[in-house]
Amino acid sequence: MAYETRGAAPPPTGRSTRSGSLVALSDLHIHYAENRRIVEELRPESDRDWLLVAGDVGEIVEEIEWALTLLADRFAKVVWAPGNHELWTPREDPVQLRGERRYRHLVELCRSLGVVTPEDPYPVWEGEGGPVTIAPLFLLYDYTFRPPGVTSKEVALARAEEAGVVCTDEFLLHPDPYPSREEWCRARLALTEARLAALPPGTRTVLVNHFPLVRKPTEVLWHPEFALWCGTEATADWHRRFHAAAVVYGHLHIPRTLTLDGVPFEEVSLGYPREWRRRTTPPGRPVRILPAAGTATETATETATETATETATETATETATGTEGP
Question: Model's pTM, two decimal places?
Fold first, then answer.
């Protein structure tokens, strides 16, 4: 399976095979048979390749373990950041842990497999395009991606409910022992910001988070009300503050590249089978983060990727309504 490169022609044949590549994928959702087959067929192009997994592997712990075990056996290193689906507590999951306890259970599972988590020392990619420090993040959201003029979470949630857009997190993602998801988010922000600020000055990073770190990617959502569950304004400048060579995220199910302040933001989700029919590339191709495919201006990059994904936007974000959603 070839990697997807965006914004420029791919490198000469054999380059990534010799030195390895840093590649990324998210929103595997392996409870779908089609998605599970894609994961089963996923192979690195080089035995030196690293894979960044930006959340939503699955919802049942047993399924998450199956997928991460397979990927850890194939890639030189796997780095995982949790999505909202991993943090759900579905009735059908024998593991009925909630909130922080569920997250810690998944961290220990990953560690047993050799998979890097947000609780572990940040690994350094020394391959082509490096050195860069790979920082998997677990930040959640705090309902600050609100519609213009709306100043409270309560009003924003009421508008979302009126529009028929309510994320399943409201029912299955429990913040225990925190009183709310936004309080859990604030705790994660403080912890993570301190860790990133402690890196040596000038350290280049690749920031990996399930949710977008900036609000701009949510501007193309078919249902803009869903942005409430997509991130926090507190991270709007992190790509600049922490010298990001790239930002990797998922959640939106709208694969695209945005270049902001000279930093590529890569949405790398596989998403749901019904969303694939409108995409212009085969599903499940990991996106190569490093070595970089090339440079492009913000306008050119954004225009090209929005054109390619315009028809996918409607399909992808319609799944945000009801009981499934990103």
Answer: 0.89
